[in-house]
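sry for the spam today, last one i promise. struct tokens for design, 240 residues
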């Protein structure tokens, strides 16, 4: 008596539309809707075998999401993350070669930190501390950066634009708007031992959206017998 009656997790999920089937990718949710499923409750009633027949191994993830069994940590979108590195000089430095070398060291350390965390930055700021105080200059980039070469080039440009005339006591580089780097896939599938191949991320993504039968390996495509005979004939006689 007097206690609140909360719905059970499965019952609460069952009433929701597929829009709330997180963290399942939107193309997969759209395909589920295309197959006629209107809410999460209908997905809960499907067997794992049925989901695997349509979505492959990703079917297990879909079922876990529908049953409320997936747990993901909350990641804040604000404030934007930043990462910084700095180097001091003995006293003050006016030698341009030493300063350029210091900027290169900053770029290398910052790039290593970004790559180790699988991150990239969309803007870069250079702080220069001199005898007269500290100045800074920041640039926004259209394409996020994580390589030492791009960071070094940007730091050199920021250093040139500041036109510092007095001795430098300390340099500090700050990478702003740091986020997870977007992975780029070089090929559809990679070779493994015994000349077998494993489905890559791109192939798996297409299979989730269009079905496992939508993608066929070239080696599995049947060639008409007439073409096979002509190909053998050309190979043996040199006739074209």
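last one done:
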């Amino acid at each position: 008596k007097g206690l609140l009656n909360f719905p059970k997790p499965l019952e609460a999920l069952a009433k929701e539309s597929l829009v709330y089937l997180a963290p399942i990718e939107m193309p997969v949710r759209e395909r589920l809707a295309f197959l006629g499923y209107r809410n999460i409750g209908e997905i809960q009633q499907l067997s794992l075998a049925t989901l695997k027949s349509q979505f492959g191994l990703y079917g297990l993830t879909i079922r876990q999401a529908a049953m409320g069994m997936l747990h993901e940590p909350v990641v804040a979108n604000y404030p934007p993350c930043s990462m910084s590195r700095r180097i001091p000089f003995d006293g003050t430095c006016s030698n341009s070669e030493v300063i350029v070398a210091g900027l290169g060291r900053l770029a290398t350390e910052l790039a290593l930190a970004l790559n180790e965390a699988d991150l990239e930055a969309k803007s870069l700021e250079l702080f220069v501390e001199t005898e007269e105080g500290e100045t800074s200059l920041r640039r926004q980039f259209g394409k996020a950066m994580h390589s030492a070469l791009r960071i070094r080039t940007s730091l050199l440009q920021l250093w040139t634009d500041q036109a510092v005339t007095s001795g430098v006591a300390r340099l500090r580089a700050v990478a702003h708007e740091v986020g997870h780097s977007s992975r780029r896939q070089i090929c559809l599938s990679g070779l493994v031992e015994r000349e077998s191949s494993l489905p890559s991320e791109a192939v798996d993504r297409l299979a989730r959206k269009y079905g496992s039968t939508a993608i066929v390996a070239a080696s599995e495509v049947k060639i008409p017998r007439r073409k096979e005979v002509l190909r053998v004939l050309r190979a043996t006689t040199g006739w074209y």
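Residues 190-198 have pLDDT under 50 and may be disordered. ok im logging off now
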